[in-house]
Structure formats: C-alpha cells, structure tokens
Amino acid sequence: MSRITIALRDGGTTTLSSATVGAFGCTLRAPLLAPQDAGFAEAARLWNGMVQRTPALVAQPESASDVATAIAFARDHGVLLGVRGGGHNIAGSAVPERGLVLDMSRMCGIVVEPDAGLAHVEPGCLLGDVDRATQQHSLATVLGFVSEVGVAGLTLGGGLGYLTRRFGWTVDNLEEVEVVTADGEARVANRSENADLFWALRGGGGNFGVVTRFTFRLHEVGPAVHGGLVAWPFEHAAEIVAAYREITAAAPRELAVWLMMLRAPPAPFVPAEWHGKRVCAMAVCYSGCADERDDALAPIRALGSPAVDLLREQPYTGVQSYLNAMQPKGCHYYWKTGYLDRLDDALLDSALELFAECPMPRAQIGLLHLAGALNERAPDDGAVGNRDAHYALGVNGMWEPGTRGADAFPQWVRTAWERVRPFSTGGNYVNFQTADEDEASVRAAYGANYERLAAIKAMVDPENVFRANRNIRPEIAAGSA
C-alpha cells in the first residue's frame, strides 16, 4: 500500500509512509482498504447522499482484537477515527473526511437464546438481520422501523420503534455489552460491572468506545402482527389529525401509530391517480392479542374510505421493513426533530399549514407516538433521558440529487421547525440530529444527564479519540469541576 495522507484529531493532516500503513495492515489481520481498492467505495458509502466524505483508509475488523488494533493505531498516530455500523445516520458521522473508518459490516453474527429470552448481536448487523433471527422464535426486541438501519448506531443513540410503547427505548432492553475503549481494552459492561460505562452507552452515542457485542432482552411478538399503511386525501387531514390525537390518547400499548403528511409515492400499491398528491397517512403496528385487535383498530377503521389501505395481518418482519422504500439510500435528507409531551391545537394547525405550503415534493411532517413504558422509568435511567416524551415530531426534507431548487430546501426545513419548536419539550433524539447541529443541540438531547456523560467521557476517553460522532467532549467535565 502506498503513502497515505490522513486527517488528524487536531484538525491537521499527516502523511503516513507505506511502511507504516503496511505494518498496520499486517498487525490488523483484517481487510484494510484505500480509495483505489475494490470494496472501498461501498464500505465508505453513506445513506444520506447529502453528506459526501471520502476517508483515507477503511479497516474492516472481524474481531474485538482487530477493533483494539485499529483504535490503538488511531490513538497513537493522532488519527481522526470514525465507526460505521450501517451508515444510516443522517449526519453521516460514521465517515470523517480523510480519516480512518472502522467498517463493522464483517462483524455480523447473531446468537438467539430463546429460553433465556436474549439475543447476542454483533455491531455490523442491520435491524432486519436481528428481526429475522429473533422472529424464528416469535421473539423481538425494540428496534427502529427501517430494517436497513444499523443496530449499533440505533442502540447507542437510545433507539425507538413500534415496540417502544410496550417496552421502552431500545436501551431499556439492553442487558449487556462488550466494548473496546480508547485504551484498547475490551470490557464487559452491564448494570453491575463497569456500570457507569454501561449507563453512558445506553444513549450516549459513539463517545465511549466501539461495542463489539450487544445483548438484548427479547419479548414475545409475532410472527404475525396487524399493521401497514393507510392514507387519506389531504383535504381530510384536519379530521385525520384530530382523530389521531384521540386515537393515541386512548390506544393500548400494543398499538403504535405514526402519522405522516406526505405526497403519495409512485409505488405499485398506490393507485395511479394518487401518485404525487398530498395525503395524510398512518403507519400502524398492533402487536397484541388477536382477540383485542378489532377493538384497538376500530377508531382507525372508522375514519372512512382511505385512498390507500395496506392495514392487514402480516409478518412482523414485513411491518418492520415496509417504510424502507420511503427512505432510499443516496437521496438527500435534512431533518429537524424534537420530542413533545402533548399535541396542542396550535401545533396541529401549524403542522397542517406547513405541509400544505411545503415546496418539497418528497418531504414529510411526521408524528411518532411513544408514550408508555419509557415514561415509567427515572429520568436518569440510562443516558438516553427524555422520559417526558410522549411523541416525536419531525419536519423531514428529502429530495433526489440534482432536484431543481433544492438549495432552498434546508432553509425551509429550518424555518418550519422554528415555527413548531416552541411546542417541544426541548429534548431531542441524538440519532436524528443533522451535521450542522451545534453543541447546544447535543446538550439538549441529554438534559440533566449531560454533565454525568461528560465526566464518564473524561474517565474513559480523556484524549477524545471518539470525536467524529455527536461529540461529548471530556474537557466539559474538567471545566465544570
């Protein structure tokens, strides 16, 4: 391998000799890719096409030992380090420009212990991989609602999905991890062993090390649930939105309903006459007892004749993947999101008005109903916090590369968000933060838990080796001491 110019943690660059890079590759005992190598482009590719970065090197570890070797190299040479699980993060934090990327995709093992109700998952797995493995035993854990998202990033940021109302955040179902920290040591962390580190990993993002094994608590779900998409003409949106508030206020925890205002996509399941027209839709997942299903879904069915109706019994894995097509890899994405503790009239009116005037053909304004199990835990039960959240609200911009007028789209999202932000709790989901969010947004994601996170960061990563993510800086703790 030839000489490589690589980014440093201090913001500069250095040139590594071919001997240095070659020695790293030999010690790594796993693939080490440079830009000219086959497989490099895919290993460095991000879901959000709006974020275009090219690393200097991509290492593809196959074991915790490989991970430790790569971390040691980055630490000792001062190299800027990123960690890529699924590459689905909207900020694109997995890939630092001209840095070293750990592409975890080769670490994709899953072991399910059905009798113990546990799943042991390696960090290169996608959500769909875990769902398929656990559903062989009619079991599931709380994961997101797009099956191509990486398990590691979702979990370390807190994690939410259709099962959140029943079982809490993803990290509320995390039993244990194996993690390699900045000093190159592999550690087991759970509620009794390395408990502070485990607390931080339950929502604190990629600030504390590289997790090489997650152990999740599983629950009886599936193999069939009742779910799917149902959409009504936007001219009836005021009625649908008002009904959504009533439905979610009374819904059993087994029923999760997302509300989306969007233009109907040109998909085979959408009648041609609705393609591109504004609709108000619900994404539904009922995972409870079949005998109570009709009563739970009755308020949705009472809303009249929809333009699209895919609400039916289907495999849980199908419900977990039917939004994939609405977030294709390579599109440009720009979001602003936050949490709500209720749905005010003024908020709902503003959301309807904003979507009616939205200039983006593929934008969405969405509400995710989350209230339930997560609200019953203490505010400091895991770094994830936000135990007052009942809904998540998003103004979500999406467009194809080269779309005419796209330069104005991010500003429209920001302006729209400022209009609805006063209704939020002030908290937000760190996994939904865009690359231009500042430190204040990171602090807001954790609220009162931030200072403890900074103190733990100062203990386990004092040199801030893990900084390419939504960063919690160790000097914050030192400065506040």
Walk me through the structure.
There is one protein chain. This protein has helices at residues 18-28, 40-44, 64-77, 127-135, 151-156, 164-167, 195-201, 237-250, 293-301, 316-319, 345-356, 409-420, 439-446, 450-460, 474-480, and strands at residues 4-7, 13-16, 32-33, 57-59, 81-84, 100-103, 110-113, 118-121, 139-140, 174-180, 186-189, 210-217, 219-220, 224-233, 255-263, 278-286, 308-309, 312-315, 332-340, 364-369, 391-399. Helix 14 packs across helix 15. The chain is an alpha+beta fold and 481 residues long. The chain is built from 15 helices and 21 strands. Strands 14, 15, 16, 17, 18, 19, 20 and 21 form an eight-stranded antiparallel beta sheet that branches. It has a five-stranded antiparallel beta sheet with strand order 7-8-12-10-11. A four-stranded mixed beta sheet has the order 3-4-6-5. It has three domains: 4-106, 2-Layer Sandwich (Uridine Diphospho-n-acetylenolpyruvylglucosamine Reductase, domain 2), CATH 3.30.43.10; 110-220, Uridine Diphospho-n-acetylenolpyruvylglucosamine Reductase, domain 3; 224-432, Vanillyl-alcohol Oxidase, Chain A, domain 3 (3-Layer(aba) Sandwich). The protein is globular and about 70 Å long. Helix content is 28%, strand content 23%.
